[in-house]
């Protein structure tokens, strides 16, 4: 229980820190984002006083209001889910844009990361168990994929599997012309087909890290005394591998999974840029290109929140699978 | 008598495998150092011997030839010259971020853990918060507010967002070091706190620090390349990332101009691989478990059937 409270307390502080960073970054940077944004909004139509107030609350104001009252106003607007109005997707509100794009990112990058984790940990277990086998010599190859910059690997795969041998579509999230969006077979099939190549690139570039980490932990675990005991008891090798070695060796990988979730969302920006995938990363890039500061801040906030939430989930899960963490707290 | 010779031969066998392992780790280290060193040399010397990377030529996009060893871009700029300047730019980013990460993670990881108490609590809270705030989006947000970015600004932003993970690693290791017997002994002997930190603890952290810096350099160079590829990198300077960005914008992929987009990516991959190799050998040096505590090594401890029977004879 104390462990839980401690964790929840940490995430509350982290949440507050993220909100504060989000508050100060536009105010400390050179230039006047509010004026740029409002003049852009003005090109689309008249700027209502509410729009002006909401933009100023989010990005800063030149009216000389003290910083702490701006801060309270900002927190109040966030509590009501008011993230301002987007310029690039005028007149949609920032929250509705995020609502549309977030499921694409979570679906593509989240699934690909889970697949990569499972495959990597599985292969790593085998490689550590049978050291010196062909699986072990696979590790340098996969780490090479890791040192290749992700977007370059993705570009090369897109070039070979998209234009030279057109097996996969070049860009987009689904077939825009032939299917209707909704819960129907053709649409889901098209989503899977369009997501296959991006998912493949994510798995290829990240599986090596999981495999290497798991394999090294397996090698360390194999030298523990309880492994010797298990062998001396004459247990079946498969049972020793799964029940004794892998079960203990997987713990750092699980906590690494939490940290990697942060890099998942970050990586999705590049993935979506290469494949023009309609997720939140593309929206962030479009907002950067169009100086759409409200949308940019909103997306940054959502990305941070989802990373915090995912980390909290994994932490709670970790306390279930490793009782020592609860005892230590 | 037979027993001792047997033991000697078993020890002999163990020694040869250890020698082989160390040699293996040395080949890794040597390969990494040679590739990495060659690229660093290219970045240092290359810009002095190649042509002007910005010089526009009316030959347009052309394949490698005697005049242009790696061909030209669509405005006739020499790719080899751009690559040389790009290498220098990317390595600068890597070096700056490496040094800054070393300082930041050393300060927040080692000093916090050694001081203990509320300083440690505060530092580790700060580190953990920096760890969960996603780096690349923050870099993108910060860099989008600044229209003209220098390569230094990009490096500093990358360093600020990337030191936290290695600070945590260092903290964990320092915590285990500060309670070792020899540290306690030197405290009892009345050594000053800063002396214990710099003379007793820091030298033991050097291999770990080295591998963290190598990681930071890889991360920074890849991060900068990704940022430049998205069009958010330093303006007006050459790095591997900006070459790829211009290649992408110049439709090098569609036109099949491999000499434009393959070399910078290959340089990135080679340099990353070289640094990873160096890191692996550092890992094997500091963590002997990775070297000889494996299942196959343990199998080597078993005595063969004849050794067993001989041992039995000897004891009888």
From TrEMBL, chain A:
Keyword annotations: Membrane, Transmembrane, Transmembrane helix, Transport
Transmembrane segments: 104-129, 150-171, 191-212, 249-275, 295-318
Superkingdom: Bacteria
Compartment(s): Cell membrane; Membrane
GO biological process: transmembrane transport
Cellular compartments per GO CC: plasma membrane
Occurrences of domain ABC transmembrane type-1 (ranges): 102-314
SUPFAM superfamilies: MetI-like
Membrane topology, as annotated: Multi-pass membrane protein
PANTHER family: OLIGOPEPTIDE TRANSPORT SYSTEM PERMEASE PROTEIN (PTHR43376)
Membership in a protein family: Belongs to the binding-protein-dependent transport system permease family.
Protein name per its UniProtKB record: Peptide ABC transporter permease
Organism field: Actinoplanes awajinensis subsp. mycoplanecinus
Automatic annotation (TrEMBL), chain B:
Region of interest called Disordered, as start-end residue ranges on this chain: 297-316
Keyword Magnesium appears in the UniProt entry: no
Gene3D superfamilies the record matches: MetI-like
ABC transmembrane type-1 domain sequence ranges: 87-279
Topology with respect to the bilayer: Multi-pass membrane protein
Biased composition (Basic and acidic residues): 303-316
Cellular location(s): Cell membrane
The entry's keywords: Cell membrane, Membrane, Transmembrane, Transmembrane helix, Transport
Major localisation: membrane
SUPFAM superfamilies to which the protein is assigned, alphabetical: MetI-like
Positions of transmembrane segments: 29-49, 93-115, 122-145, 151-170, 201-221, 258-282
One family name in Pfam for this protein: BPD_transp_1
UniProt cross-references to PANTHER family, sorted A to Z: D,D-DIPEPTIDE TRANSPORT SYSTEM PERMEASE PROTEIN DDPC-RELATED, OLIGOPEPTIDE TRANSPORT SYSTEM PERMEASE PROTEIN APPC
Assigned protein family: Belongs to the binding-protein-dependent transport system permease family.
Descriptive protein name: ABC transmembrane type-1 domain-containing protein
Species: Actinoplanes palleronii
Taxonomic lineage of the native organism: Bacteria, Bacillati, Actinomycetota, Actinomycetes, Micromonosporales
């Amino acid at each position: 229980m104390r462990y839980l409270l401690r964790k929840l307390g940490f995430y509350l502080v982290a949440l507050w820190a993220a909100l504060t960073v989000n508050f100060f970054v536009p105010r400390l940077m050179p230039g006047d984002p509010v004026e740029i944004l409002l003049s852009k909004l003005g090109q689309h139509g008249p700027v209502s006083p509410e729009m002006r107030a909401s933009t100023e609350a989010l990005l800063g104001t030149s009216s000389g209001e003290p910083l702490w009252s701006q801060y309270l106003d900002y927190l109040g607007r966030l509590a009501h889910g008011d993230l301002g109005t987007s310029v690039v997707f005028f007149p949609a509100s920032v929250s509705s844009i995020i609502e549309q794009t977030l499921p694409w990112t979570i679906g593509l990058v989240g699934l690909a990361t889970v697949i990569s984790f499972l495959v990597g940990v599985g292969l790593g277990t085998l490689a550590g168990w049978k050291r010196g086998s062909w699986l072990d010599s696979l590790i340098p190859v996969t780490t090479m994929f890791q040192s290749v910059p992700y977007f370059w690997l993705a570009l090369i795969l897109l070039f070979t599997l998209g234009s030279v041998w057109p097996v996969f579509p070049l860009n987009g999230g689904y077939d825009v012309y032939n299917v209707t969006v909704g819960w129907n077979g053709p649409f889901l099939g098209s989503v899977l087909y369009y997501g296959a190549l991006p998912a493949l690139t994510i798995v290829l570039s990240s599986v090596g890290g999981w495999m290497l980490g798991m394999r090294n932990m397996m090698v360390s675990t194999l030298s523990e005394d309880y492994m010797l005991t298990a062998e001396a008891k004459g247990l079946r090798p498969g049972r020793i591998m799964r029940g004794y070695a892998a079960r203990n060796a997987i713990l750092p990988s699980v906590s690494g999974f939490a940290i990697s979730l942060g890099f998942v969302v970050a990586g999705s920006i590049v993935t979506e840029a290469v494949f023009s995938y309609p997720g939140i990363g593309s929206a962030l890039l479009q907002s950067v290109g169009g100086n759409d500061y409200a949308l940019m801040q909103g997306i940054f906030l959502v990305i941070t929140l989802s990373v915090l939430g995912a980390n909290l989930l994994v932490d709670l899960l970790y306390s279930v699978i490793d009782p020592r963490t609860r005892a230590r707290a | 008598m037979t027993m001792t010779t047997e033991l000697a031969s078993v020890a002999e066998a163990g020694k040869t495998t250890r020698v082989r392992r160390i040699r293996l780790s040395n080949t890794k280290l040597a390969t990494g150092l040679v590739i990495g060193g060659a690229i660093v040399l290219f970045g240092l010397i290359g810009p002095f011997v190649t042509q002007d990377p910005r010089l526009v030529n009316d030959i347009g996009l052309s394949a490698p030839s005697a005049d242009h060893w790696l061909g030209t871009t669509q405005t006739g700029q020499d790719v080899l010259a751009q690559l040389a300047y790009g290498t220098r730019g990317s390595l600068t980013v890597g070096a700056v971020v490496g040094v800054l990460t070393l300082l930041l993670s050393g300060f927040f990881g080692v000093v916090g853990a050694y001081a203990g108490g509320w300083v440690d609590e505060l530092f580790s809270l700060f580190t953990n918060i920096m760890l969960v705030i996603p780096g690349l989006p923050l870099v993108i947000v910060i860099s989008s507010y600044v229209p003209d970015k220098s390569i230094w600004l990009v490096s500093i932003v990358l360093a600020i967002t990337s030191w936290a993970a290695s600070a945590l690693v260092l903290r964990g290791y320092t915590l285990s070091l500060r309670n070792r017997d020899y540290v306690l002994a030197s405290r009892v002997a009345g050594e000053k706190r800063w002396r214990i930190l710099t003379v007793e603890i820091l030298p033991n952290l050097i291999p770990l620090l080295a591998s963290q810096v190598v990681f930071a350099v890889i991360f920074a160079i890849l991060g900068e390349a990704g940022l430049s590829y998205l069009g958010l990198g330093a303006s007006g300077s050459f790095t591997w990332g900006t070459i790829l960005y211009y290649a992408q914008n110049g439709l090098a992929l569609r036109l099949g101009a491999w000499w434009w987009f393959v070399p910078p990516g290959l340089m990135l991959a080679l340099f990353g691989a070289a640094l990873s190799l160096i890191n692996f050998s550092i890992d094997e040096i500091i963590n002997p478990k990775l070297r000889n505590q494996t299942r196959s090594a343990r199998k080597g401890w078993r005595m063969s059937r004849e050794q067993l029977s001989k041992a039995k004879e000897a004891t009888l």
